[in-house]
Amino acid sequence: MTDLEVALEDMLAVERFDPPAEFTRRRSVEADLAAANADSEQFWADAARDLLTWEKPFTQVLDDSNPPFYTWFADGELNLSANCLDRHVAAGRGDRVAFHWRGEEGERRDVSYAQLLADTERLANGLRGLGVVAGDVVGIFLPMIPEVAAAMLACARIGAVHNVVFGGFAPSAVRERMEVSEAKVLITVDGARRKGRRAEVKAAVDAELGDLPALAHIVVVRGPGEHPGEVPMTPGRDIWYDELLAAADPHCPAVSLPAEHPLFILYSSGSTAKPKGILHTTAGYLLGATYTHRMVFDLDADTDVYWCSADVGWITGHSYIVYGPLSNGATSVMYEGAPDYPDRDIWWQLIEEYKVTVFYTAPTAIRTCIKWGPEYPGRHDLSSLRVLGTVGEPINPKAWLWYHLVIGGGRCPIVDTWWQTETGSVLISPLAGVTTTKPGSATRALPGISPALLGEDGAPVTEGTGILVITRPWPSMLRTLYKDDKRFVETYFSRFGPTTYVVGDAARLDADGYFWIIGRIDDVINVSGHRLSTAEVESAIVAHEAVAEAAVVAEPDEQTGQAIVAFVTLAGDRVGDASVEAELRDHVARRIGKLARPRRIIWADDLPKTRSGKIMRRLLRDVAAGRELGDVTTLRDPAVMAVIADRVRGARDDEE
Ligand code: PRX
After folding, report:
1. Beta strands 547-557 and 530-533, pairing class
2. pLDDT, tens digit (0-9, with 9 covering 90-100), for 493-524
3. What's the pLDDT at 611?
4. Best of 285, 415, 526, 533 to mutate for ligand 1, by most ligand atoms within 8 A of CB?
């Protein structure tokens, strides 16, 4: 065993880590906790006055007269981009770097608050010139470049509703999201690069979205790097981003908007094939992002250099790359590329170079780094780090300890932040330097948040496992599913009534009142911290002409947390072989995106079905997880499962 392995083994016995003395000496959140416990509405009202700049002060706080349709600060007005930009520039901090951007090929660009404001104002005017008015939806499909922040902020400045799609999704997924939200404008890029390869994004977007009736204009950013070849531009519809900015009036006063004005839609996977358009509104969302970013990470905007390695296309990027950090006036690193390009030490090189103090990433990334070995972080001086965070999935204690020792040098508190696209901001998490942590536990609720565990019957669970719910509204909660109030109520507020938000996760509460998130209890798979719906992947697979039927479940995976296994019955006399398998994986990548490709495809002559013809996914989940099979007697043909179990074993043996 290496010294590190010995140290990790020894530490596995350590159950709790107290906050380091240098934090506890100067940091206390007792006052917040006491205020929130005494009166959470008053607590949020005070925080909203303290942290946000209002054009018109609010007099109402929470309106809970029509649950689950809550409103916060509804008679107040403000502008989110003014909170993220103008107020910092006005306070003399215009030269402060908002983003240290680093391109995949090593390019550097430092974007100041003043520069970001200037770009945002011009783009906001440019969008207006294209006919965008408050309430219109603007799609954003961009890689990790500073323009993505300007695009979001420009929408917020004029009250347009942004709908960002993760750059790794396939253009057909972009089409679906633009079509259902009736986006009027799409802001995209000519081409994107990944590990030295280039994808012609604009051409692909044209092929998929060219005929969408509501989509009047496509704004095209010239992405970083070489630009070989022609980019197709349709006159009258398409316009280059830089030309739009150059022609626009530089001055665009921020529009004063009601607190509940819609800010963005972000599509997320649910238990049906149709993604859910999660809708967030202005003030409550910004309050959640601002407060938690400051409190959870112990942020000091004057001295910290913060880096969240997520993509802006996910909620983590919305709240903790763009809105939280900018509202707090922080300096962040924004990195375009992959963690292993040009080499596996690029993240650690960036931390050393920019003297990053607060680093926020996903457990799956940490597990990948563990696999690569400690020599990569070992090449760099990581002593600037003082707080580490994780998000997206449960972190296993071993990965937590490795992060703590190898990246944090044993001195940085780790905040394991639990939250969701729907919650808008972190709800359960340690506060860096305040909370005693336990590896693998997201610990306790933040001030003003009321989580609880319920049994199947709705009875409260005070210790043990249960269904995680939130019993009181909080400012940054989703307001509805875009144009689908019915699905909103059904999905989150039907099981235990209209005032109890059902998260979709199971969790355990220990004797100290600490939460341990177990995972999803619906048909959602969490691959590397990314949410995917089994139904969405199934419907992509069955859309292939060779397929008759498919069922998708998760299997545990050391690195990605969960991986996708697809059980597939082929049509006619097609035989499942390597070429059909490759074709199917490719097909899913084209329809959804690469991350939805099944890790394993098991050919089945039939799927396990009840007598009424319903596929019993529970049995497939058992077999994929290597568990004893449950009761098979309700199956129409019990022999089917034996064949499938055999094939799964065979596939595993082949792998080893
Ligand atoms: O299952 C939980 C898991 O991710 C789900 C939310 O996914 P999404 O909306 O894509 O947002 C991810 C980033 C906030 C949750 O229902 N999850 C998120 N954070 C954690 C987690 N599971 C365990 N521990 C976490 N810290």
Report:
1. unpaired
2. 999 999 999 999 999 999 999 999 998 888 88
3. 80
4. 526
Ligand 1 centroid–CA 440 distance in Å is: 13
Res. 272 pLDDT band, cuts 50 70 90: confident
Read off the tokens for 497. Answer: 């009534």
393 lines ligand 1 (CB under 6 A): yes
By residue count, the chain amounts to: 656
Torsion of Cα atoms, 304 then 309 then 314 then 320, to 10°: -10
Contacts of 105 (CB under 8 A, 6+ apart): 193, 224, 225
H/E element holding 100? strand 97-102
Q: Whose CA is nearest to atom 18 of ligand 1?
A: 392
Tokens coding 357: 């103090």
Helices (H), 132-200: 146-158, 171-181
Ligand 1 contact via 315 beta carbon (within 6 Å): yes
Give, for ligand 1, the residue of 264, 396, 415, 418 to mutate: max count of ligand atoms closer than 8 Å to Cβ.
Answer: 418
Which residue's CA is the closest to the ligand 1 atom numbered 5?
420
Using alpha carbons, select from 353, 341, 362, 343 the residue that is nearest to residue 382: 353
Percentage with pLDDT > 70 across the chain: 100
